[in-house]
Write a structure and sequence with these properties.
The structure holds two protein chains of two kinds.
Chain A lengths: L2 H6 L5 H21 L7 H9 L6 H35 L11 H14 L10 H22 L7 H25 L2 H11 L8 H28 L3 H6 L4 H23 L5 H13 L3 H25 L8 H20 L6
Helix pairs in contact in A: 2-3, 2-4, 2-13, 3-4, 4-9, 4-11, 4-12, 4-13, 5-6, 5-7, 5-11, 6-7, 6-11, 9-11, 9-13, 12-13, 13-14
Chain B lengths: L3 E9 L5 E9 L4 E5 L6 H8 L7 E6 L2 E2 L5 H5 L2 E4 L11 H7 L12 H14 L14 H14 L4 E5 L7 H12 L8 E5 L3 H7 L2 E6 L2 E6 L1 H4 L2 H8 L4 E4 L6 E4 L9 H5 L4
Parallel strand pairs in B: 3-8, 3-9, 6-7, 7-8
Antiparallel strand pairs in B: 1-2, 1-4, 4-5, 9-10, 11-12
Classes of the chains: A mainly alpha, B alpha/beta.
Chain lengths: 345, 272
């Protein structure tokens, strides 16, 4: 056994890594509810989370303001990471991510349509807007894959290019729609477009949670077959995998979680690129381990990114998408440069 | 019962290329070579035999069963394919990849002790056991091809299909592949189908040869019936010289470059 191999796999059992990440997630959740315009001690935060009564100011801050926002960040981060992992597995391309593929723009467009139709107001149920965003995401993903396909394969260059084209197209559609909107509605929409975790309602969280669980169920079920897809579609077929069916299921699931995340929190870029990549560094490429790892790591990542967005320029609040893009763009460049010259796509 | 039976199979791509009315068979344990010029339909035939493509007309039978009525998993327990180009998208280890060959046998990709043992044995047979923990994407082309072969052997197939298994390999790796597939020690019950541009390789190791040209079967029979100047000139559209290999007593194609006029003098002299 080579030293190289020993180094790569040093003691990293999936269960142990997952336990560490769960601890990280719990810690980031706790810190996230402690930090804000009023700082709380860990004791106050924990009391607010687990026992505080209605008279308790700390409990009110934690339960009414910080916890919903933190949960939203966590679930959205998990959704986007899961979507990235799914798109990467079915396109055999580690650069695939909802934002890179233009799927996020499609979801934004779908949601914009819902806003224009007057069914995405502040008081309406989050289910319809989520469906619209899902439809937009699915439409964009179908278009990107149809354009990128060459002889039944998805070469990196055409995939990235068609992602850019479709992304720009749907972004333009969203801009067009903003012209039609009244000024009063516009401000909220623009803030949402930049990626915004502030208005987290219980209904939104519930819908998002259900979608996430469904997405995880689909990907966890398909994980062994997604591993075989790494050998190429033809080899997967020859090993007994109904490749087309697997790809379709994951495709729909990834679009659904993207649509739900975007409709709840707006466009937050690169999470689906960063998190699966980090998970792969920790555990290797086995999707059976990557599905739970990406979900937990993605939740922790976006909670911490939101914490950064709230505190770096306090009392001003940065859009969380700025933080994730500042992390993601350099990683994207690194991955692209590293893979250049090889044809292992 | 035949191991492979192809009955009047037609498959055309939208471009019009493909295969028309192909028929042949292979007995259990037989080694069948498929040769012919580019775009003759060789790779299409392998795709039809492994159910990646479905015939538009005719039928493919493996062990007497029409594979259009056999589930993909059940078929993968009988038929394994070593593709021409073996690329793995993510940094899986050699051991991971060879274990993937156990997928048709293991339920849902949960490997048991026997799966691991079979995978280990396959790596030993091919000689890549010492690479087990290396990343496949860091291997050389030759090593990767051997891993691909080990993956196919881990499938424990009764029918092994090889698409140009030696095409991109240096001499040593070519020998390793040929030895694993054709040596006397290898599984004689396994039916082997070799697609190759290397006519001499096919003629030396195969019991029968199928010569495809322009999407149809031009000749099917023992190497000495197929590897003849007439057959090959008709298929390839250029003059070909054939003699007999002094060791294997199989027909052997001599370099046709000589007759292209380029190296006339040296090639003709003391080779026999």
């Amino acid at each position: 056994m080579s030293a190289h191999a020993a180094g790569r796999r040093a003691g990293a059992s999936p269960a142990a890594v997952l336990a560490w990440l769960a601890a990280l997630l719990a810690a980031s959740l706790l810190v996230s509810v402690m930090v804000g315009s009023v700082s709380l001690t860990p004791r106050e935060a924990l009391r607010g989370l687990f026992e505080g009564g209605s008279q308790d100011t700390a409990a009110t801050i934690v339960r009414k303001i910080r916890l919903p926002r933190t949960l939203l960040a966590g679930i959205v981060g998990a959704c986007l990471s899961l979507a990235g992992l799914g798109f990467q597995a079915i396109s055999r391309n580690p650069l695939a991510d909802p934002s890179v593929l233009g799927v996020s723009s499609g979801a934004s467009f779908g949601l914009m349509v819902a806003v224009l139709l007057g069914i995405a107001g502040p008081t309406s149920s989050p289910i319809l807007p989520t469906l619209f965003a899902f439809a937009g995401a699915l439409l964009a993903a179908v278009l990107v894959y149809a354009i990128a396909q060459v002889d039944g394969r998805l070469p990196m260059t055409t995939l990235l290019l068609s992602g850019v084209i479709i992304g720009l197209f749907f972004t333009s559609c969203v801009m067009l729609a903003t012209v039609v909107l009244a000024a009063a509605e516009l401000q909220g929409v623009v803030f949402w477009l930049m990626g915004n975790l502030a208005p987290a309602k219980t209904g939104t969280l519930a819908v998002l949670g259900v979608v996430l669980v469904a997405g995880v169920a689909v990907l966890a079920r398909q994980a062994p077959r997604l591993n075989l897809l790494a050998l190429g579609e033809e080899q997967a077929l020859q090993l007994g995998v109904e490749a087309e069916r697997v790809k379709r299921a994951v495709f729909v699931a990834a679009s659904l979680v993207t649509g739900a995340a975007i409709s709840a929190a707006g466009s937050i870029g690169f999470v689906g690129l960063i998190v699966p990549h980090a998970a792969r560094l920790l555990l290797g490429p086995d999707n059976r381990a990557l599905v739970p790892t990406s979900v937990v790591l993605g939740a922790a990542f976006l909670i911490l990114a939101d914490l950064g967005a709230r505190t770096i320029a306090a009392p001003m609040e940065l859009p969380v998408g700025v933080i994730t893009s500042f992390c993601g763009a350099p990683l994207f460049v690194y991955l692209l440069r590293r893979r250049r010259g090889t044809e292992a796509w | 019962m035949t191991a492979i039976e192809v009955r009047e199979v037609t498959f055309r791509y939208p471009s019009g290329k493909g295969l028309v009315g192909a028929s042949f068979n292979a007995a259990p344990g037989e080694r069948l070579g498929i040769v012919g010029p580019n775009t003759a339909g060789k790779s299409t035939l392998l795709r039809l035999l492994s159910k990646v493509l479905a015939p538009q007309r005719g039928a493919v039978l493996i062990h007497g069963r029409d594979i259009s009525r056999v589930g993909r998993l059940a078929l993968a327990r009988e038929v394994a394919v070593v593709p021409q180009d073996f690329q793995v998208a993510f940094p899986f280890s050699v051991n991971d990849v060879v274990l993937m060959g156990r997928y048709p046998h293991a339920t849902g990709g949960a490997w048991g002790a026997r799966d691991r043992a079979v995978a280990r044995e396959a790596m030993q047979t091919v000689g890549v056991a010492d690479l087990a923990n290396r990343r496949v994407d860091e291997l050389s082309g030759g090593e990767r091809q051997l891993v691909s072969l080990a993956r196919a052997l881990a499938q424990e197939p009764s029918v092994l299909l090889l698409d140009e298994p030696t095409a991109h390999l240096d001499l040593r790796h070519q020998r390793d592949v040929v030895e694993t597939v054709f040596s006397s020690g290898s599984d004689r019950m396994r039916t082997t189908v070799l697609v190759s541009h290397d006519l001499n390789l096919a003629a030396e190791h195969c019991d029968r040869l199928l010569l495809l040209a322009g999407g149809t079967v031009q000749a099917f029979g023992a190497p000495k019936e197929v590897i003849t100047p007439q057959q090959l000139e008709q298929a390839y559209g250029c003059p070909v010289e054939v003699d007999l290999d002094p060791v294997s007593h199989r027909p052997r194609v001599r370099s046709s470059l000589a007759r292209a006029g380029a190296v006339h003098l040296e090639m003709d002299s003391p080779r026999m």
